[in-house]
Amino acid sequence: MKVTLLNHSDSLGGASVVTYRLMQALRKEGIDVRLLVMSKTGNDENVTPYHSHRAHKCAFLMERLNIFLRNGLSKVNLFKVSTASHGVSLASHPLIVDADVIAINWVNQGMLSLNEIEKIAQLGKPVVWTMHDMWCLTGICHHALECDRYKKQCGNCQFINGGKRKNDLSHSTWLKKQALYQNTYIQFVAVSNWLANKCKESTLLGDKHVEVIHNAFPIDSYSITPTSKIEGYDIDFSKNLILMGAARLDDPIKGFDYAIEALNIFAQQNPDMAKCCEVIFFGDIRNPQLLTKISMPYRHLGRINDANTIKQLYASAKVVISTSLYETLPGTLIEGQAAGCVPVSFGKGGQTDIIDHKVTGYIADYKSPQSIADGIVWAIEASPNREMLHESVRKKFASQVIAQKYIKLFKSLIEK
Predict the structure, then answer these.
(1) Which residues touch 40 (CB under 8 Å, ≥6 apart)?
(2) What confidence score (pLDDT) does residue 416 get?
(3) Which residues neighbour 121 within 8 Å (Cβ) at sequence distance 6 or greater?
(4) Quick check: 35 and 7 in contact, CB under 8 A?
(5) Containing domain of residue 163, as a range?
(6) Are residues 26 and 58 in the same domain?
(7) Percentage of the chain surpassing pLDDT 70?
(8) Whole-angstrom Cα distance, residue 98 to residue 36?
(9) Which has fewest Cβ within 10 Å: 14, 175, 280, 351?
(10) Which residues contact 394 (CB under 8 A, 6 or more apart)?
(11) What is the 3-state secondary structure (H, E, C) of 253-306?
(12) Integer CA distances (angstroms), 137 to 113, 152, 334, in order
């Protein structure tokens, strides 16, 4: 079986990382799989970059220009939406022609247009589309936030010109997606049950069969053994470490204000416990002054590019927290749990696929800093067995487990 994965990049962004991991997992199971990308940063010979950087750049610029014009010449929200109005020509690419299965992943920002996806789907090969956000079920947005217009036909989009027009860019793109889904057979895959439920609510995918297959994680590469030193970092490993990490900590969707308030509540209500703790933040932050609001010991390590360092942090920490307002399938919680760290998080997303409340972690009340603080107390006092935490995510997210689910799906589609 020959499988071609399509993704914008092999490493830039969360979808790229998990798609590359899937390729590695499938290859370990004996599948002849290649990854076709627009941007290649690694040196893996199984990753093929599209030959024309110029064609891709042109498609990218044309799509963004159209959004800019339709948004009243404003750059606001320019990258919170995608239209797939432009893309490169891939239907005749050798890796597409030779494949038995085409597996689409995150292909926005000038990679594939809706028209090109239709051409690929009409080649007579099984097409699997793994959704890493809400874009396939909405008009143009990647996360609908509090909006529920995807349950109808989109329009009055909050991200386009202040939501003033019913027949706006989101509605016209919704109509194009509707036509694509009606004219082709695509097997959609959601990476979490939360996302699959959003599909059921939507008018675009509500009548489609959506498989749920989680992202693959190298769970066995995570050790639960704490360390006493990490080269280059001055950390007191005798304390109960509370971790929070993100590409950008103060990205609005990460709910950083809720984390700060929760940590302050925790310190105020549990002063003796807080004295034995230290908060470790890792990732970029645009406004470092936010950290000065925290009333308990903390340390900001900045961006950490070394995966082994992050694994050591998880293995040495007690708790990993997330206050993200929306997460399709939060990797930091899975990775932390794989190292025996107790996750505490809001539940607006794929968190419930990861955490068994008050068994393997704590699902806090949505947007409640007090509930996050309560979760931290529970995690420290309950101190679940680290081996049990590791095993609970290994069964769900280990690379081999996920690869086998995809192989089963691919074979069933080929047989059909």
Answers:
(1) 9, 10, 47, 48, 49
(2) 85
(3) 127, 180, 184, 185, 186
(4) yes
(5) 2-216+398-415
(6) yes
(7) 100
(8) 13
(9) 175
(10) 219, 220, 338, 401
(11) HHCHHHHHHHHHHHHHHCHHHHHCEEEEEEEECCCHHHHHHCCCCEEECCCCCC
(12) 16, 11, 25
Cα–Cα distance for residue pair 400/296, rounded to 1 Å: 41
Token duo for residue 240:
């109960």
pTM: 0.95
- Tokens in use for 103? 């597996």
Q: What is the rounded CA–CA span in Å between residue 99 and residue 80?
A: 32
Residues 116 and 177 in one domain: yes
Identify whether residues 308 and 182 lie together within a single domain: no
Instruction: Assess whether pLDDT exceeds 90 at residue 247.
Output: yes
- Residue 14 CA, chain-centre distance (Å), reads 5
Structure tokens of 230? Answer: 């990490």
Residues 104 and 188 reside in one and the same domain: yes
Q: Which residue has the higher pLDDT, 161 or 111?
A: 111
Indicate which CATH number applies to the domain containing 122: 3.40.50.2000
Residue type, 339: A
Structural domain count, the chain? 2
- Please give the structure tokens belonging to residue 352: 């419930």
d(C-alpha 7, C-alpha 13), whole Å: 11
